[in-house]
Amino acid sequence: MKKKKIDDIVDSIAVLVNNKYIVAAIFFLIVGFMFFPKSSTTFYNLSVGDVAPKTIRSSVSMLVEDKEATKRKIEEAVRNLPPVFDYDSSAINNTINSIGKALSIIDKTKPETTMDKFFKTLGLKPHKSLYLRILRYKQDVIFSYAKIALDSLKSYYIVSSTRQLYKFPSQTIIIRDIKNPKNEKTLNKNDAIDVPRAKIIAYNKLKSVTDDIALRNTVWDFISDLILPNLTFNSLETKKRQEEEAKKINHVFFKISKGEIIVRSGDIITSTDYLKLNALNSIKQQENVYEKSIAKLLIFIIITLLLYRAYIVSKAKKNKMLKENVIILILGSLVIAQLSIFKLFSYISSLITYSSPDFPKTALIFGIPFVFAPIMTAVMVDFELAFLISILMSVSAWLVVDSSINSYLIIYMFIGSVVSAVGILKEKTRAGIIKAGLYASVSNIIIISIFYIFNGTELGKPMIFDLAFGVLSGVLSSIIVSGVLPVFEYVFNVTTDIKLLELGNLNNPLLKELAIKAPGTYHHSIVVSSLAEAAASSVGANSLVAKVGSYYHDIGKIRKPMYFVENQTDGINPHDKLKPSISALIIKNHVKYGLEIAKKHRLGSCIMDIITQHHGTSLIKYFYAKAKENGQNPKEEDFRYPGPKPQTKESGIVMIADEVEAASKTLSNPTTAHLEEFVRDITNRIFLDGQLDECELTLKDLNLIVDSFVKVLVGIFHHRIEYPEEEKNADNYN
């Protein structure tokens, strides 16, 4: 389940945007972000505690804010600001009025009916025993004593807890009347009391006015929960005043004079030094950085559009192996990845420049693994596009990398990129990737040596470092490609020649499964691959795609192998008990099953295209004729494969090879002339049926294909054992 979810996510990413303009817009937005100037830390990259690599002087006079000192000053001012409390002067009177109203509700003739209403008026939970005690006395007696006790609190400022007061350092608080917010005064904390203290005062007052303990306890139990604070902390107003106070505080600055030594070589960077260096960084970065970045981005966009347009016009629209939007996604990812590598190495170079002054500044720039994108493009798409990518990446390095050798970078990277792209064309294998990186390393050594000869520089430590990092550049590139290529193949579902070689290994688990479950189909696929490979070579198509595609073109027959005549070894044919229409449906479904298996095993788009196109929309003649014989008046479209028709030369070749191999089982030791006539008849029949209308096979190509097929078949029939009679109708529903 997890693998399926991962596959679904990967497929969603691969087909994220079908609109090439949206993809291009996203691509240029990301590139624009990479070109946009970053923070000033890219200048003096020193932290507190670092050792200054050289003496640094200020090139300007300026005031620099000490943000930490300013922050401390603001915190001190805010901490001493008195908090604001809202004062409700009518709180006690409101409580007394509520008591009077509640007592007036009491009806001693119906005590039970009025109890709930009594306590609800006071906002208290019902307390039956207390209510019965209150009923023993007259209402006016209870009210008068309650009023006396509560009146004693009118002169006090009451808070819910003294913790509200003492969490602020200030010894005073500001009291603001809620009825008249403009009427406020300052009060010492010690002049306010909390609710427990207020209850003690009220109880002592009650004790002083009556000696009747029962009455006193009844009144006290009645009013104790009604003693509430009349001071409430106003957090919003307090915060507002703190913010206003912070704005009034003057920020702390110190002056830097022009020519002033900020730090001497070998000094330990202090916090003050760090502030000054950051200030210098900000001044440095303000020097036309935005204008320069926009100009660089525009140059990049123009070159990208021109190069890609040139490729699309000249090549891509003729190449149906990869869709244009897939090419855009692949190229966009590669260019962004390569630019990220440029930025990373440029940043590391700047860090090393200030931490190790003796280290050659150019070494890391020469060590950038810049042939990553060209090699990946050559492997995944073609050499023509890799050549154009080499131009784009060389110019991009000149735009992005901050180096003293910018004037040499374009030549250095362009030559190395082209050499590596040519190198991978010779051997498209995993080992070939390493060799392509080594070719780039050799090229780098030669170009760097030429640069030193032009500059008249003698052999020394800088040159040795540069040469060493030039070699490292090619090696790193090949390592990165080796690790990243499988990811790109998986994400974009692209079948490179390297992956094709792996899929073409007959020890592949899927081919082994085919050999075990459908041995006749396996043998058929092997012969088809020999035919297709020879034909593809003769017409200039991709012979590797044709060969490996042939291995898997009938992979769907694994699901129901015994419904295909080449796998029926016991003479039992399950189609004898089925209607022709059902048999035709089963035969057609091997294409659908093949596509499902191909997606599950991520065989790649070109293999999946061959699986879906190798029958095109051809007619399943055997069962169509059988249906007619049974008097069913069948519709021809019900007995045709769903298609599409072959879209590439390779798919068309596999279609013809599939038909020829299946039909050849009816032959027994024919002559060369007979074989040529036999193959040409099948090819003409497929051509006249319109199955080759949408691929690029010409009549000349078809003649070459026929010739190549005949040569292969002659070799096969040279040692041919005659097939049993029951296999002679194999071409009817293969």
Written overview of the protein:
By secondary structure, the protein is mostly helical. It is built from 30 helices and 10 strands. It has 3 domains: about 1-35 and about 290-495, Arp2/3 complex 21 kDa subunit ARPC3, CATH 1.10.1760.20; about 85-240, no CATH class; about 500-730, Hypothetical protein af1432 (Orthogonal Bundle), CATH 1.10.3210. It has helices at about 1-15, 20-35, 65-80, 90-105, 110-120, 130-135, 140-150, 165, 195-210, 215-225, 235-250, 270-285, 290-315, 325-355, 365, 370-380, 385-400, 405-425, 430-455, 460-490, 495-505, 510-515, 520-540, 545-550, 580-600, 605-615, 620-630, 650-665, 670-690, 700-715, and strands at about 55, 60-65, 85, 155-160, 170-175, 185-190, 190-195, 230-235, 255, 260-265. A 4-stranded mixed β-sheet has the order 6-5-3-8. It has a two-stranded antiparallel sheet with strand order 1-10. Helix 14 packs antiparallel against helix 16 (about 370-380) and helix 25 packs antiparallel against helix 26. Residues about 40-45 and about 720-730 have low confidence and may be disordered.
Please write out the topology.
Blueprint: H1 2-14, H2 20-35, E1 56-57, E2 62-65, H3 67-79, E3 84-87, H4 91-105, H5 111-122, H6 128-135, H7 139-151, E4 157-159, H8 163-166, E5 172-177, E6 184-188, E7 192-194, H9 195-209, H10 213-223, E8 231-233, H11 235-248, E9 253-256, E10 261-263, H12 271-285, H13 289-314, H14 324-355, H15 363-366, H16 372-380, H17 383-400, H18 406-426, H19 430-455, H20 461-492, H21 497-503, H22 509-517, H23 519-539, H24 543-552, H25 580-600, H26 605-613, H27 621-629, H28 649-663, H29 672-688, H30 699-717
Parallel strand pairs: 3-5, 4-7
Antiparallel strand pairs: 1-10, 2-9, 3-8, 5-6
